[in-house]
Amino acid sequence: MRIRHGTIAPAEFKPAWWLPGPHLQTIWPAFLRTKRSVSLTRERLELPDGDFIDIDWIGDAGPIVVILHGLQGSSRSPHVRGLLGALAHRGWRGAVMHFRGCGGEPNRLPRTYHSGETGDVGYFLRRLREREPSTPVAAVGFSLGGNVLLKWLAERGVGAELATAVAVSVPFLLAGASGRLDRGISRMYRRHFIVDLHRSITEKFRGRPGPLDLDVVRHTRTFRRFDDRITAPLHGFRDAAHYYREASCRQYLRGVARPTLILHALDDPFMTRDVIPRRDELSPSIRLELSASGGHVGFVKGGTPWTARYWLEERIPRFLAEQPGFDRGKNARANIPASFSRRSGDSFG
Q1: Running DSSP on this structure, what letter comes out for residue 229?
Q2: Burial call 284-320: b when 16+ CB within 10 Å, e when fewer
Q3: Which of 84, 183, 255, 334 could form a disulfide with 154 if both were Cys (CB 3.0 to 4.6 A apart)?
Q4: pLDDT digit string (tens) for 122-144?
Q5: Residue of 69, 98, 198, 296 with catalytic role
């Protein structure tokens, strides 16, 4: 019997002439682009283990697109805001699911989140499906969120509570990504994330008993050491190697059963090309589009520094619009799950 595989195809992305190279493509949209103003309503979802996650919503009717942010990201991340605006323009709802501790308030339990933690997204999507059984739901995951999304899709298989999915700039092999960030110019990204992780962990355990020695936290300088001393013990892994092995999504991709688009740049400075899966590792439901350039969650395609165009905000909605239910725009009034407790109707500028 002939074994069917997924598709690997060239992406149509062409970089803006004024942003050549992977680092400019990565840095500009993350730190220099004008932040889009979007009006969000925050909801809190209580979890079965006594913890919580925060969901930021845009729109009040239509199909739902759940967004999973990257490491230390949130609904304030520029690429997340940009996509939220593009979804609203289509008449769809967006729901940014913050991983534990990423919504602006430390979570209650000692554990936080990691690249392979799929329980929370699974719980949220099940509750969403219970409350809105006829509403089309898709998901988009960026970087770490893309790894989580692909792993969850594979674990759920044909039972996944999604119509379709998109994953962007995924660290398919975590050990490889960790090693790449220890070399060359990419070390500046490592430093940025490590400093932010130090701050987050220190704030979380300041003034209350915790399982971590904060002096050890402050003296970690690489991802492998951070994951060895902090991520692994907090989440039940033996060490960083065990965590990387179990959490990396590449080994699970054959189990994905929903139409899924993966967008990736060959020059992504967060990882090397050898982390990218082969065609025989992809399920028939996956289309992997590779571009020669684009950096990490960058993909700035044109315009000027004042009128930049972001390809992800065009490609992702176009793919979703090809899926059943998402070609109709607004189709029903929102029925936000009753189990979510409303906290505020903030407008984030």
Answers
A1: I
A2: ebbbbbbbebbbbbbbbbeeeeeebebbbbebbbebb
A3: 255
A4: 999 999 999 999 999 999 999 99
A5: 296
Distance CA 146, CA 152 (A): 10
User: Of 268, 283, 285, 293, which is the active-site residue?
Assistant: 268
CB 67 within 8 A of CB 80: yes
Tokens, residue 315: 């490609």
Query: Contact 51/81 with Cβ under 8 angstroms?
Result: no
Can you read off the two tokens belonging to residue 22?
A: 């992977």
Q: Pick from 249, 78, 278: which is nearest to 171 by CA?
A: 249
Exposure string for 119-144, b = 16+ CB within 10 A, e = fewer:
ebbbebbebbeeebeebbbbbbbbbb
Q: Cα–Cα distance between 97 and 102 in angstroms, integer?
A: 9
- Residues 60 and 335 sit within 8 Å (Cβ to Cβ): no
Q: What angle do CA 88, 90, 92 make, to 5 degrees?
A: 60
Per-residue pLDDT, 130: 97
Q: Which of 74, 143, 169, 285 is catalytic?
A: 143
Report yes or no: 272 and 176 within 8 Å, Cβ to Cβ. yes
Selection from 92, 85, 146 nearest residue 121 by Cα: 146
> Could you tell me which residues are beta bridge partners of residue 21?
none
Is residue 330 pLDDT above 70, yes or no?
Answer: no
E-strand ranges in 104-229 read 137-142, 164-168
- The distance from CA 253 to its chain's CA centroid, rounded to whole angstroms, is 16
Which of 217, 99, 106, 101 minimizes the C-alpha distance to 147? Answer: 99
Closest CA to 137 of 285, 331, 326: 326
Locate 338 and state its tokens. Answer: 């009753």
Q: Are 83 and 312 in contact (CB under 8 A)?
A: yes
Give catalytic status of residue 79 as yes or no: no
293 is an active site residue:
no
